[in-house]
Design brief:
about 30% helix; about 190 residues; alpha+beta; 6 helices; 8-stranded mixed beta sheet; globular
Length: about 190
């Protein structure tokens, strides 16, 4: 009976050794197993066996496997201005000129904010095209006489309610300047 016991012990030890050799701690870890599965799914040769034409894993990896993840897309973009247009934030209005600062679009607030130093802008002598927007009612930009636009700006700058049907929207204006730097066209930013 000693022989079968020895044979059984030898058989059990060899089975355990084979089982342990087939599954090493490095293979069974969830991180290694997941990384190996992802690499295999991407077509990466994880085996450096020179007989299979493999070679260096990094050299065999698809290019997309080696690149960094792309940067996330911006959540907002500034409105596109037509050629020759710029946006100014008006800080004071007079019948013959405006004082304004260049504007930058803030993705945090989704509006224009003053960015540059104050500059005085006169109006073109030949007449200025001016528009205001009736945003509460969703109406398109409406041409108005320049004095009406200046009165609207005065009210907004003084934090008074402007004449109906207009409202105050941050004093940002889309302007077109002539060759002398005078305003030829002015409309609330976003107004057509």
């Amino acid at each position: 009976m000693a022989a079968p016991r020895i044979l059984l012990a030898a058989l059990l030890s060899s089975t355990a050794a084979v089982g342990l050799a087939a599954c090493t701690p490095a293979d069974s870890g969830p991180t290694v197993a997941a990384a190996s599965s992802a690499a295999i799914a991407d077509g990466v040769d994880l085996d450096d066996d020179p007989d299979d034409g493999g070679g260096d894993d990094a050299a065999d990896a698809p290019e997309s496997f080696l690149q960094e993840a792309p940067a996330p897309a911006p959540t907002c973009t500034a409105p596109t201005l037509r050629p020759g247009h710029s946006v100014l934030v008006v800080i004071s209005a007079e019948p013959a000129e405006l004082t304004a600062r260049t504007a930058r679009f803030s993705c945090d607030d989704h509006r224009y904010e003053p960015a540059g130093t104050p500059v005085h802008y006169g109006f073109a002598a030949a007449g200025v095209s001016a528009t205001l927007v009736d945003r509460p009612h969703g109406n398109p930009a409406k041409p108005v006489p320049l004095p009406e636009l200046v009165a609207h700006l005065d009210d907004c700058l003084a934090e008074r309610e402007p004449a109906e049907p207009y409202g105050c929207y941050g004093n940002a204006y889309d302007v077109v300047l002539d060759s002398h730097g005078r305003i030829m066209r002015i409309g609330e930013a976003g107004a057509g």
